[in-house]
Amino acid sequence: MATSKHIDKLCCIILTATLMLTFFFMNAGRFGVQAVNATVGYASRLFNTSEVHTVDIVMDDWDSFIDTCTDEQYTDCTVIIDGEAYRNVAIRAKGNTSLSSVSAYGNGRYSFKIEFDHYDDALNYYGLDKLCLNNIIQDNTYMKDYLTYRLMHEFGVNAPLCSYTYITVNGEEWGLYLAVEGVEESFLTRNYGNDYGELYKPDSMKMGGGRGNGRDFNMEDFDPENFDPELFNPEFFPTEDFDPDWKNTPFGKGMADSDVSLIYTDDAFDSYANIFDNAKTDPTDSDKARLIESLQKLNSGETLESVVNIEEVIRYFIVHNFVLNFDSYTGSMIHNYYLYEEDGQLSMIPWDYNLAFGGFESGSDATQLANYPIDSPVSGGTTDSRPMLAWIFGNETYTNLYHQYFEEFINTYFENGYIAAMIDSTAEMISPYVENDPTKFCSFEEFEKGVSTLREFCLRRAESIIGQLDGTIPSTSDEQAQNSAALIDASDLVISDMGSMGEMGPGRDRNAPGGSFHSSPGQDPSGRNPPRQTPPEQDHPGHSVGF
Hints:
Blueprint: H1 2-26, H2 40-44, E1 53-58, H3 62-67, E2 75-81, E3 84-94, H4 97-105, E4 111-115, E5 130-134, H5 144-154, E6 162-169, E7 172-181, H6 185-192, E8 198-200, H7 210-216, H8 273-276, H9 285-300, H10 304-307, H11 310-323, E9 337-342, E10 345-350, H12 366-370, H13 387-393, H14 396-413, H15 418-436, H16 444-470, H17 477-482
Parallel strand pairs: 1-6
Antiparallel strand pairs: 1-2, 2-3, 3-4, 4-5, 5-7, 6-7, 8-9, 9-10
Helix pairs in contact: 4-7, 11-14, 14-16, 15-16
């Protein structure tokens, strides 16, 4: 009997303690206790952007690894991040055209992908499973990816985290890279929680997409009069009756398959192979059917709020259209983006901006690019051929919202000098590392010129967009062609000073064969023939934008 009383008291004590602990944890925030997020560790460590981090790769036979990088096979190594060692980690080279470009250049400065959990599922870096180390190819500014990801993230888009890191190999200096959070499981958990949706990276094997383009096609060799149709999608390049006026063919409207454009064709899974074969999650048949249904509604304009994350997608395209990256969904290649789907709703995740700020069309006039129309932002096609973008301009309410957010973007990041300060502070932070970088693709003087050109280009671009929003500058390509005198002058800038397609190596002659991708005189690669503008000397009211 006495024993029973003691047991009852003990149970009451345990119950009371349990209730108290439950109350404490449910109200932990009131007591100053912060919830632990599995990804907070890597976000505040490696991706702290206030400093240049260190990554030392330790490998027995680095030279052999570099010699076989184009095979993209994983090799085990030890990675030491800011002094912390992680053993039995997998590393391989990554990239599409950059793989062949680096191989041809011969300095071994490949981009790398590190998988912490490749050999051991339990291994991670403070919650991070995949890490990309970008070689900053074709970017003399060293900032195009960095600046774009920062802007995307700060403007409300789920973008990968990034930071600068100086790489050494077995203790020997290798170069300054950009560390980028892999858009995989840890990214999904950080942004969407443990119960996240499906992730895809649409990419075509045909010309204009992924490894097909990277392996077998060199844009500098393209001759529209004498081409090999086998390199291209036959839907766009029929082998017979080829129209020599190629700008008016489907080729001129986009060179990849329709599914990577997110065009709905039918309900067959095979019709979307370039999406489903490049899934980053493991979609079921039900997931695939749901995505196709969403694409059908997207293309028809039905119940857009249920199939598009309206605000985030608009914010994505505002930053994307400002930085002018045509090696992307809005260019003829139609790749370099992630598609996220959850409960039938779609959103875009940014990826690969080393050719932003006109680098993909460096032969184009700087005035043309600085004034690129925000209401017809597609190069190498029409806005209607990109359903994930077209809905913005197909509805006055969404167009007005796009303009409203664009004004917010300019006011927030340009009128107060925010971007100017970011560019200047970033240049100051990384300059010593760029100067000492033994494998860099440009000279230090070219880096300095690239940074100053980037800064000034952003000024002219922001000035033009202010005018496009208030109606003093045309906001479509057709209107700009009819009123070129209104455009902001940027004729003193050279886009390729910021880096461009095919341009690598200190002091490389931009006028030499292969120096960069140039269009025909007076015509950009999209075939739009936007007007060139070289107005007389004038004051630039946009200098009040804060630069």
